[in-house]
Structures are given as structure tokens and as C-alpha cells.
Specification:
This protein is mainly beta. The chain has 4 helices and 31 strands. β8 and β9 form a beta hairpin.
Length: 495
């Protein structure tokens, strides 16, 4: 090939190679641009306000509003101090002052928290510095070491030797990016709006729950109660919510169960601090088919804390005590003779959740504890019961225990088959005698409730009954002081 043609080819190749090199310099992998973006961290110090709505089933909705400085285009935003039990799939980040300006590209929840053990694990295969101090001179020497293993101890390669354990202190160059000192939600976002923005992060989290607790004091005449209600909050979510707007949802909200819950969701904390916050009763409103209670002031829900806030307070609520002897259905279709002696009589207290009774607000489910003052004026605990969600204008009925002084003996005095029952049916006639005994120095009234199956009718009785429903006969029996009363009746049943 002539020289001039060789020169032309070489010049052409040179031009092409220069273009390729220039293109390679100007091009970066798609993820490289993101990885080179400086991370912007926002903490609780940037928080403007936070609202927490807590449900009955260890679930809460958090709305966290923070100020942030964003550049135009791609941003790496790290939101620190979020709940350690956040459900990342529920997280929603939006701008309040520039709606629609934030385009979320990616988000990661970093819950691998910084500890000496975790830091050492992240440096396996990497170089650290080992600083040793001379025991007499105090002089320090430094050696480079490679971490070979951090499983049940540390294995180091220092020069040409392998050592276990550390005769000195380990110095690390940096903290790995995926190791955080606090639970952090890391996002990649594209900002097309203002530089200074107020963003709201909303998410669902576990580790927050509440329950209602009630305390009632029974009047000396046992015809009224003073009632106070408290909401007990428990926070084991791994975060603190400072000056939070607090709302509580009462009701059974349907949730899809996760077949494989994260370990972080299962974490329990044994050490819980207690705090009682006195306040005005909480405001209540309807929410779909549930009820929403709102605290009238901000409150701080600290990490690993149990807090109580006032729910309601009402005095002189009309109430009534009732002694109930409850029977069973089985002894109406057979011959039994003695049914029982010294049977326990239940003690119940009942009141109405009405405005006329000085209540009239939906009561969340919880435990109601009842006290009564003794002759010395000291309040004594007399029983407790679980109440369900109770709407307005419904009754609240509590079983406090069983009477010590009022007992009963039951026996069947007669039993026989009735002739000519319908084909495929049976008919019986039974006679019963109930002896009610009262060791108190005042008259007592006992409500006898007898569930009776089939088609039944009472053909003879010593005291009139009330047919409460198709399955229940009820007698109200007065028992004199330190005396007894006998109830007898005869009943026919068809099955």
C-alpha cells in the first residue's frame, strides 16, 4: 500500500478512536448517576408537626411533616427517625407547598442499625486500622488489617499473619451507607418544583396500640356510679413522636394478614415506662362505621413508653345492682334429683349509656373496674369485667363476682314422660324446688333465670314468672333478711 494511503487510514482510525473515547467519557451507567448523588438527610429537628392515628389492633397511621431543601432534578433523600416497624409498602411521600413536583423513583427502608457488631460484619473483606497502646510508654502504633470473619469473634489478617481477637482498638474509615444509627427511609426522587419544600411522609406501622380502661365507684346505696375512662397507649415502634396530634379509632378494622411478617414487626420490648397525662375528655366523632377520638392538645409519645390520657368523666350515673341465679337447659329433659347445693349467685351492675344518664358517648371496648368505699371511707376493689364497644343509648352490664351471703339449693322433685307425643317428638313434665338463702341483715332480691328448650309452658308455680323470650323464664324472688324463700314450679316441655 502506498504511503499516502496508509497515512489516510491511520488518520481515520485515530479520529474514530478519539470519538469513541469521548463518548465513553461522557456516558455513565444508568445507576451511576443516582449513586453519585449526595444524600440529603432530614431528622426530627426538621419536623414541623406529626399526627398519629392509632387503631385497636397494634396498627397506627403516622403523618410526618418536615422541611427539606432539594435541588432541581435527582435527589437522594434520607428520612431519619421513622418507625422501626414501618410498613414500607404503605409509605407515601408528597410535597405540601409544591403538589405534584416530586416523582418517587425508588425507596429503601434501612433498619440494619449501627452497632459495633454490625459495623464489624460490614467490614468483612475490607481494611481497618488496629491501634495499639504501649502499656508503659503510652505510645500508639497503627497497623493495617483485613477483616476475614466476624462470626462469633473476629479473624484478622495483619501482614503475613492471621490473628483472632483484637489487642487494641479497631478504627474504621467510614460507616457503610446501608448501616444507620436510626431507622431510615431512603428515597430517590426527581424534583421539578421549588428548592425549599415542606414534605409529608405518611405510613402505616406496627408497635403502637391502645386500649380503654375504666374506673367506676359504686355509691353507698349501690344505685349510682362515678365513672372515669382512660386511654392507655403503648409505643414499642422504635421511634418517638414529639408533640403529636393524637387520634384513636375504635372499631374492628379489616386487615390483610401478612403470611411472612418481618422480624422487626415481631419485636417486643419488655422495659416500658409509664406516664399519666391528665387532660380534658377526648372529643369523639363518627368515621365510616367506626368512632374517632381526638385529644384536644399535642402530646409526646416516647419510645418504649406507656402513657395514659383521659377519655371521659361522669358522676352520679344511675345504676342498679342485680343478683342473678342462672340455670341450665339440660335438666328439663331427664331425671336428676339433686341439682346442686350452695350454688353461687352472680353479682351484676348495670347502667345505661345515655345522655339522660350523664353519658351518651360511644364507649370503646376495655376493662371496667369497680370500687366501693368501706365504712372507714376507703375505696375497695369489688370486681371488674370486660366491656365491648358500646354505642350510645345501649346498656352496659358488668359481672363483678359472686355473692358470699346469698346462695341457692336446687332439686328436681318430679319427672315423667307425657303420653301420646307427636310422631318423632318427646314430651316431659318436671317439677322443681329452688331454695334461696340470704345471710345478710337486709332483704335481697334474686333474679332466677331458667333457659328451657323446646316448646314449653309452666303449668304451676309459687311465684309468677316472666317469659323473657322463647327460651328463657325469669322470676324475681324477694328473700328476707337472714331468711330463705322457696320457689316451686312445674313445667311441660315438648321436643
Amino acid at each position: 500500500m502506498p504511503l499516502k494511503y496508509k497515512l489516510i487510514v491511520l488518520a481515520t482510525l485515530s479520529t474514530l478512536m478519539t470519538g469513541v473515547i469521548a463518548m465513553e467519557k461522557n456516558q455513565k451507567p444508568a445507576d451511576s448517576a443516582q449513586n453519585n448523588v449526595d444524600e440529603t438527610r432530614i431528622t426530627q429537628d426538621d419536623q414541623k408537626n406529626v399526627a398519629v392515628t392509632i387503631y385497636n389492633q397494634n396498627l397506627a397511621l403516622v403523618k410526618d411533616t418536615r422541611k427539606v431543601n432539594l435541588k432541581k432534578g435527582l435527589n437522594a433523600l434520607a428520612l431519619r427517625d421513622v418507625s422501626a416497624q414501618i410498613r414500607p409498602e404503605t409509605a407515601l411521600l408528597r410535597s405540601l407547598n409544591a403538589p405534584g413536583s416530586l416523582n418517587l423513583l425508588e425507596q429503601n427502608f434501612d433498619f440494619d442499625l449501627l452497632t459495633p457488631e454490625k459495623l464489624l460484619e460490614k467490614y468483612v473483606g475490607k481494611t481497618v486500622s488496629i491501634v495499639k497502646t504501649h502499656p508503659t510508654t503510652g505510645a500508639e502504633t497503627t497497623e493495617k488489617a483485613t477483616v476475614l470473619s466476624a462470626n462469633n469473634g473476629v479473624v484478622l489478617k495483619i501482614g503475613n499473619r492471621i490473628e483472632t481477637g483484637v489487642a487494641g482498638r479497631i478504627v474504621y474509615d467510614d460507616v457503610p451507607a446501608n448501616l444507620r444509627d436510626r431507622p431510615t427511609l431512603v428515597t430517590q426522587i426527581n424534583n421539578s418544583g421549588a428548592v425549599d419544600q415542606t414534605v409529608e411522609l405518611s405510613y402505616l406501622t406496627g408497635g403502637l396500640g391502645w386500649k380503654a380502661d375504666y374506673v367506676a365507684e359504686l355509691s353507698p346505696k349501690e344505685d349510682s356510679i362515678d365513672l372515669s375512662g382512660w386511654v392507655t397507649l403503648t409505643n414499642t415502634s422504635g421511634a418517638t413522636y414529639k408533640n403529636a396530634k393524637l387520634q384513636l379509632v375504635a372499631g374492628d378494622v379489616n386487615r390483610v394478614q401478612d403470611a411472612y411478617p418481618r422480624a422487626a414487626m415481631m419485636r417486643k420490648n419488655d422495659m416500658i415506662a409509664a406516664e399519666v397525662a391528665a387532660s380534658a375528655p377526648m372529643a369523639e366523632e363518627s368515621l365510616l362505621e367506626y368512632h374517632l377520638y381526638t385529644l384536644d392538645r399535642p402530646t409526646t409519645i416516647a419510645e418504649n413508653q406507656t402513657k395514659q390520657v383521659a377519655l371521659l368523666s361522669a358522676n352520679n350515673i344511675p345504676a342498679r345492682k342485680e343478683l342473678v341465679l342462672r340455670g341450665a337447659e339440660y335438666y328439663y329433659a331427664g331425671q336428676y334429683g339433686e341439682i346442686g347445693t350452695k350454688l353461687k349467685v352472680g353479682v351484676f351492675v348495670e347502667f345505661e349509656n345515655k345522655e339522660a344518664s350523664k353519658l351518651g358517648m360511644p364507649l370503646p371496648k376495655g376493662v371496667l373496674r369497680v370500687y366501693k368505699k368501706d365504712n372507714a371511707g376507703n375505696a375497695q376493689f369489688v370486681g371488674e369485667d370486660q366491656i365491648d364497644h358500646t354505642p350510645k343509648n345501649e346498656k352496659v352490664r358488668l359481672k363483678l363476682g359472686e355473692s358470699f351471703d346469698v346462695t341457692a339449693d336446687k332439686k328436681q322433685t318430679e319427672f315423667k314422660l307425657l303420653p301420646n307425643p307427636q310422631k318423632g317428638h318427646s314430651a316431659y313434665e318436671s317439677a322443681f324446688e329452688f331454695t334461696l338463702k340470704n345471710a345478710k341483715k337486709e332483704k335481697m332480691t334474686v333474679v332466677v333465670q331458667e333457659p328451657i328448650g323446646g316448646d314449653w309452658k309452666i303449668v304451676n308455680e309459687s311465684h309468677p314468672h316472666n317469659k323473657a323470650n322463647s327460651h328463657l323464664a325469669v322470676w324475681k324472688i324477694d328473700v328476707p333478711a337472714e331468711g330463705k324463700t322457696t320457689l316451686t314450679y312445674r313445667v311441660q316441655t315438648k321436643y
